[in-house]
Every structure is written in structure tokens, then in C-alpha cells.
Amino acid sequence: MSRYSARFKQSVVEDYLSGRGGGGREVARRHCIDHGTVRKWVAAWRLHGKDAFRKKYSHYDARFKLKVLRFMQTQALSCRQTAAVFDIRNPASVGLWKRQYDSGGIQALQPRSRPSTVKQPKSPPPPDVSRPDEARTKEELLEELNYLRMENAYLKKLDALIRSESHSAAQKAQVVAGLRHQFPVKGLLKMAGLARSTFYYQCKASQVVDKHAQLKAHIRSVFEQHKGRYGYRRITSVIRRMGSTVNHKTVQSLMQRMQLKCLVRPKKYRAFRGTVGRIAPNVLQRQFDADAPNQKWVTDITEFRVGDQKLYLSPVMDLYNNEIVSYEMATRPVFTMVARMLKKAMKRLGPDERPVVHSDQGWHYQMRAYQALLSERNLPQSMSRKGNCHDNATMESFFGTLKSEFFYLNRFESVEALQAGIKKYIHYYNHDRIKMKLNGLSPVMYRTQPSRP
Hints:
Number of strands: 6
Strand content: 5-15%
Domain Integrase catalytic: 289-451
Structural class: alpha/beta
Region (Disordered): 107-136
CATH architecture of the domain at 296-448: 2-Layer Sandwich
GO molecular function: nucleic acid binding
CATH superfamily of the domain at 296-448: Ribonuclease H-like superfamily/Ribonuclease H
Number of helices: 19
Shape: elongated
Protein name: IS3 family transposase
């Protein structure tokens, strides 16, 4: 009885082919099996599909063993690779046959036990090589020559597809179709062990046009245009805006098949000096929505590291459409950076606009100079509770998006290069990057759209 079930073997192979968690050694460690076993199962799956894991009781005669050994020698393959090509479940058997043949010739390959009653796959009778050439007729020699030519051509084609992902039936049908103009189809089908109906079915299936070919091209185009930042929901929205009606589940399924995966995020930086000034109440109270622009603003500071240098970013976001209203950058987290950012944001306000300005309890926002700037325009100040990042979740989310979609995906030689890249990304974020909660529009597009009746 097999130590591992077919379902378990298939799950191991699918885990390896998905590419989610490292190479074969990581997959083997995860499933508590040997690394060589993973390689053997993957090779068998690539050649024979699900059939590779079905129970198989086979009796191999001397001629089949000799054919296997000849193929291994001419193609310079290992016992494991040869076993995978011929669907021999135990690669050690190939090594045993080789030792037997080297010591005793073809006679040593004869089975010593009684012949098995299991039916063998149909194959053409190989030529009788035990008789000398002088004792055979011209017809017998021509038959042998034709057989060897056909066998050699078939095995060459099969060897070229060892790393193919297709199932065994489709693979064999492809080989037979490539040789049908040189040799009789009947003989090739017998050699491949394929039924005639299976062969013609696979030929017809291979000619079916992929109905999702155009949609796949659109998906890849949008994915590459946004450098892997869009998942299936945003890509679905973009394709719909192009005029195509498509279901998000179809896009998700196709992206999985195409191995297109949205890139994800970690987070950093928090600076707290304790109480250095006045703490403002939490006016915002996690109400992260607004009915019009310039009603609620949120701000914070985040840190980037390039080699042994650091860069700090201080932006202001409007909660109406999550647009970055203004921002400043500096190599030190000084107060002047925050002051310049706030003054730039205030220039965008109308005479009667007084948004609530929410932040955490960072020392910049506790300073009298910062609070004086807000008082000049009568802007209400709001602060998160101490040590509670969820009270400023929208700005924290922006920092996570910025780093996962831009910072972690690129290498920067200097702080200046990083500054230039952040400026480009914030422009992209405001003008081009769509948000699903904004009806598939970018922040600027949402703010400037015509008012609805």
C-alpha cells in the first residue's frame, strides 16, 4: 500500500507549482517529506498529470526494460528522469535493470517470477533481435528498421516535452500529431498507448481558441501599467470603464492562472517625546468621511531609510476624497517641515472653509507654534488618543500603501532620488490611482466630477 495518498501528492505538487513559499526544499519541509520525493512527484505530474498518482500495477518484460535503458543512455538522463518519462513509479527499478543488463545482458532482464496477469498497454511487437541478421529475410530487416526509426523519432519528441505542464494524453497526442506525416498513425498510437478516439479528441481540443485571450491581454496591460499595485477589483473597474462588461470573479480567476498578484505592505516609524505642550481632544472620533472638500483633514509623519540616511514625509489628506492636499519632506523631522506643509495646505482654503485638522500626539502637533498657525485661521485641532493608531487610520493606511506600492518595490541610490520618486507617486496617487470607494475614480477625478442633480 502506498505511504502517501494521491490527494496528498497532488496537494504537494500544487503547493510547489504555485510558487507561494520558496523552492522544493521549503515545500518538503512544510509537508514533512524528503526533498527528492518532491522533485520526483513534480516531474511525474508534469509528464503524466493526475495519472501519475493513480495506483498502477505493471509487469515489465525484457524488451521494455531494454528500451528504457537505451533511451536513458542515448539521452544521458538519470534513473529518476527516465522513470518519470516512462511513468515507472520506482526509479530504483531502472538502476536495478541497468546493473542486471551490465552483468548478464538481455537474459538477465527476463522476469524470474511467473508472469503477471495485468494487461500491458498496447504496443507494437518489437523486432526479434535474438536472431542474427543473416538468418532474417529482407522484409523482417525492413520492418525492424522502420520500427527503430519510429521509436527513435517518438522518444526524441517526448524528450523535448519532458518539462511540459500538459497532461500525458495531450502530450502524447501532440507527439503523434507531429510524426503522423512520417509514420503510420496506427503504429504511432500503439507505441504511445493512445486510443484513436483519444488522439482525435486531443487534436480537436488543442485547436479551440481561448475565449478569454483578449481579456487576459487587458488584465496584463492594466497590471503592468500600474506596476503590480492593482488587485482584481481595481483591474475589473478599469476594464469596465474601457467599455467591457466583465465579472470580477472572472478577472480574479484569470489573474490566478496568469500568476499576477497584487503586491502587499508592512509599516514603520513612530516618534514620541512625551507631553511637550497642550493635548487637544479627539474631535474626529474616527469619523473618516466628509460630505464636501476641506471639512476634515488628517496629518502625520513617516520615515524612509536609504542606506545610512533618512527621509521624513509630512502630508495632509482631505477625508472627502483621500486626496493629498499638500506635503513636505526633510532629512530631519524638524518642526519647520510641518509648518511649511500646513501653510501650503491653508493656501487652498476658501475664506469660509475651516476644516478640522486631526493628528496623533506627536511633539510637532503639541507645540505652541503649530497651534498658533491653526488659530490664525480658526481651524479646530483634533488629536488621537495616546498610543492609539486606529484614531488616525486613514493616514496610516496611506503610508502603508505608499511604501508597499512604491518604496519597497524600488532601489534608491540617494535621498534625492527617493524624494523625486515620492513626488511622482503622490501625483500618480492623486490623479491616476483609482479607489473603489470613490466609484472607481481617482481622488482628483472624484473632486472635479460634475455635481449630480
